[in-house]
Design brief:
- By secondary structure, this protein is of the alpha/beta class.
- It has 14 helices and 8 strands.
- The protein folds into 2 domains: about 260 residues, TIM Barrel, CATH 3.20.20.70; about 100 residues, Chorismate mutase (Chorismate Mutase Domain, subunit A, Up-down Bundle), CATH 1.20.59.
- Helix 2 runs parallel beside helix 3, helix 6 runs parallel beside helix 7 and helix 12 crosses helix 14.
- The structure holds phosphoenolpyruvate (PEP) and manganese (II) ion.
């Protein structure tokens, strides 16, 4: 699939003065809940009401959604508020029911994007309809799998497409429920600048307090919209309670977020600069993380050397690393002088770490 301007026609046609806001509960719970939230969201910048009808749960035993019944509630919310609606579809049967109930936008969940068979089944079920389809990133950090899903829909004649960035799962627990790995979304944006990109801060965060910052980063990176889980009584939500915010909080958030509109030369310059700076911030954050990981391994080497009574400094190994890095650096247009300086600093920090582990262990033995 090449980059095509038509991909964003549906978004341009909405003619919004601000990035697209999709909001609503993680799950439709009762008719009253859906309608209460929909009416509260009507007073915010929300254009599209979301609600999960069939919930993919990682572990069985959690609330699995109300099923087709909830589609009637979404339909009623649309009639009463005029908002568009969206829900997740995970097989051809869901598509059939969603089409019958006039759902405007369908989204493909992270656990579905990983499976080309199911993605194909959904794409075939939608063949030649004019539905808008938003594809969440797969649970694992794999850009090709994500793009592959987009291509399957495009080839089935569905050209009103967009992608939702909801983060990637990791085995280690981090501050996020799903690690954002911004670089993957930035790569996708560079390859398909006309494919609308929407952030789902709720599933990245898994908690309320960092949703604002995630949205701000996305806007600084020129994302086209946000999809935020919103509930009138978040603490008592039947699913994903800890990450949902109230419609009032959402409203305040959209007021506080800095949205950069591209008008005029100076503004355009500042916008571009801010976007590039945010990209640099993402990479700097990765650099620190990776250096931290390297030092943890240095600590382990320190322990191993102490246990075997081996000297910390091993000049032969160090010279080999340096030689290899200078050659690799050349391939990435990094000067020898820069590589030498950076690796000397890294090496020194590793030695300090190893010394620390050695002396800490010696102290604990005394
Ligand atoms: C959701 O949006 O409620 C959902 C289940 O999302 P994901 O597929 O990103 O986990
Ligand atoms: Mn959810």
């Amino acid at each position: 699939m090449e980059n095509k301007k038509e991909l964003r026609n549906w978004l341009n046609q909405m003619n919004l003065a601000h990035p697209l806001v999709i909001a609503g509960p993680c799950s439709a719970e009762t008719e009253e809940q859906v309608l209460t939230i929909a009416h509260a969201l009507k007073k915010t910048d929300t254009t599209v009401l979301r609600a999960g009808i069939w919930k993919p749960r990682t572990r069985p035993g959690n609330f699995e959604g109300v099923g087709a019944l909830g589609l009637k509630w979404l339909q009623r919310a649309k009639e009463e508020t005029g908002m568009l609606t969206t829900t997740e579809v995970a097989n051809a049967h869901h598509v059939d029911l969603a089409l019958k109930h006039d759902v405007d936008i369908l989204w493909v969940g992270a656990r579905t994007t990983v499976s080309p068979f199911i993605v194909q089944e959904i794409a075939d079920a939608l063949k030649d309809t004019d539905k808008i389809v938003l594809i969440k990133n797969p649970v694992n950090p794999d850009l090709s799998l994500w793009l592959g899903a987009v291509e399957r829909f495009y080839s089935a004649g569905i050209h009103q497409l967009g992608v939702i960035h909801r983060g990637f799962s990791t085995y280690e627990k981090t501050r996020y429920r799903n690690n954002p790995e911004w670089q993957i979304a930035i790569d996708l944006q560079n390859r398909f600048p006309d494919l609308p990109l929407i952030l789902d801060p709720s599933h990245i965060a898994g908690r309320r307090d960092i949703i604002f910052d995630l949205c701000q980063t996305a806007l600084d990176l020129n994302y086209d919209g946000i999809m935020v889980e919103t509930h009138h009584d978040p603490d008592n939500a039947w699913s994903d309670a800890s990450q949902q915010i109230t419609p009032d909080t959402l409203k305040q958030m959209t007021i506080d977020l800095r949205i950069r509109k591209e008008v005029g030369d100076a503004v355009e310059f500042n916008n571009k600069l801010a976007t590039l700076r945010t990209k640099i911030d993402v990479i700097d954050h990765q650099l620190i993380e990776i250096l931290g990981k390297r030092m943890k391994i240095a600590d382990q080497i320190g322990e191993l050397k102490r246990a075997n009574n081996v000297a910390i400094l091993q000049s032969k190994r160090w010279n080999e690393i340096l030689g290899r890095m200078i050659l690799e650096g050349e391939e990435h247009l990094l000067s020898e002088e820069f590589i030498l300086r950076i690796f000397k600093a890294i090496h020194q920090e590793s030695i300090n770490h190893q010394k620390n582990t050695v002396s800490l262990e010696e102290k604990s033995l005394q």
